[in-house]
Amino acid sequence: xxxxxxxxxxxxxxxxxxxxxxxxxxxxxxxxxxxxxxxxxxxxxxxxxxxxxxxxxxxxxxxxxxxxxxxxxxxxxxxxxxxxxxxxxxxxxxxxxxxxxxxxxxxxxxxxxxxxxxxxxxxxxxxxxxxxxxxxxxxxxxxxxxxxxxxxxxxxxxxxxxxxxxxxxxxxxxxxxxxxxxxxxxxxxxxxxxxxxxxxxxxxxxxxxxxxxxxxxxxx
Length: 220
Description:
The chain is α+β, with helices and mostly antiparallel strands and 220 residues long.
């Protein structure tokens, strides 16, 4: 409790000094964009993924490190219900060059003795792959359930074998962020999403298309 209070006080001071806004929604804290920013947001190629963040590191510590290689447009830190970070975040810089520099210079950076972080370009994947569903379930039930439990859905495609049994489902979202939040909602629900089965939910391989699988039929 004392550590969390100290972290909150440090965060409040950081926000006051930096004049950045902080919002929290759907299990993540979003810092930015800069108040002086005008125009459209940076391109998706300006975003990086940071993993293996110590659980006692928050926005002030992260910005102190990643602000050394470029101007940060936005930082999204994933949080759990206890108020601690989940060990990873997304950082968007104002230019692609700054993002590339962060990957080059800060990947495997030793944040403190024996603790290194991982930094890679954020994959702009907007699709989730689901299998191990009840084979005879009707398409409408699957589509309705996915739309009910996640937001920002663009399309749900159910692929069946020639015998009519479900092979897999591809869920397309309007944005990568929507897909990431959808995955965060669906994975904990994998055992209760549909009756009498444990659904497998993972990021879709970009190479998965109907032409890759013989005898697959697509249903919307």
